[in-house]
Amino acid sequence: MEESALLTTTRSEAIVPAAPLIETARRVLFFVAFRLLILAITVVVAVYLTILIANMGGYVDQIRRAEIREIVAQAMLADPYFRSLPPEARARVQQELVRQWEQYFGLDQPFLLRSVIYLRDALLLNLGRSYQISSDTGSRQVRLILLERLPPTLLLLSTSNILIFFLTLWAGLALSRRYGHFFDRLVIGLAPLSSGPAWFYGVFLILIFAALLRWLPFGGMVDVPPPPDAPGYALSLLRHLILPTLALTLSNFFVNAYANRTFFLIYAGEDYVEMARAKGLKGREIERRYILRPTLPNILTSFAIVLITSWTGAPILERVFNWPGLGRVIYEAIGLTDTPVIVGATVIFAYLLALTVLILDILYAIVDPRVRVGGPGIEQGAP
To answer: I need a surface site. Which of 2, 124, 251, 341 has the fewest CB within 10 A?
Structure first.
């Protein structure tokens, strides 16, 4: 009897811890589902607003109808058969051709109805065909245009942004150790330089290193004609990458280093850090356990935003350096009111941003002990 009672008690004690695990899993699933719903609504609203703005509330449709009438009229004037028709018959044929083209592009439907159709297609990544821009292969499918221009943009911005992120993180931590030092004051004094956009510095860099000194190429991605061998191609690509990367670095380094330095100084002044120093812990260990760890959620957020912004391109900078990236094609699409390209780039970025926010929310609960998921909100306590 005693053995049976002991066995029953042991089994009960083994079963009891499962309840908190199930409750935690339920709360986490509820949290993820709720965040997914909020992010989905945000993406839908953002994409629909982009459709309305890119179409200027339907004004672009009037431009498209005028372009169709002009193209049909020019085609009929160039054809001897249509020129030989009586004016009334030619007008009827022209009207019928315009009607067919408008029906082909969906311009025979009300704009509000078509905007909902655009929204559905965009969310399903059915991006359609560009009105004006084509890829190097001649295709006007938006998907192929974006995929063709994406690798150069990722190469340029990912290289620059990741380099800037780790350099400014290291610089901010180093400056926080030497508060009031010469280099600390120097970075503070140079921080206003980051108010200038990257393309502004790019113009001066081209004038100095390309026009005057002739050390580096003016722009483009590789030499023309491209080197036939892989090492020569890589070296040419690296030389063309230097100036735009340097322009982005000058535009972002000082202000980001100053922001990180200030951020680390704030955490270094906390009471628990002073207590750790009083206990005799070494400086590196204090930085790792009591400064870097509490700032890890902010560092993760900054790094995620850095990666996401690499997909957006730098329209004016790519234009200045003649870089064949995604930002440049978006710049051209805006100038040509090419709605499918604008909406396609926006919906991809919206999906990436929503996915990044969801992943960050989950990572916060993992790396930050102050965050508890699944309650009425996010509860924070002392670190």
So the answer is: 2
d(CA 209, CA 355): 40
2, pLDDT greater than 50: no
Cβ contact 308:165 at 8 Å: no
d(CA 85, CA 106): 29
148-335: CATH topology is MetI-like fold (1.10.3720)
Domains in the chain: boundaries: 21-123, 148-335
**This prediction's pTM:** 0.73
Check whether 226 has a pLDDT greater than 60: yes
Question: What residues pair up with 141 in beta bridges, in sequence order?
Answer: 129
Peptide bond into 228 cis (omega under 30): no
For the cut 50, the answer to whether the pLDDT of residue 382 exceeds it is: no
27 token code pair: 């709360």
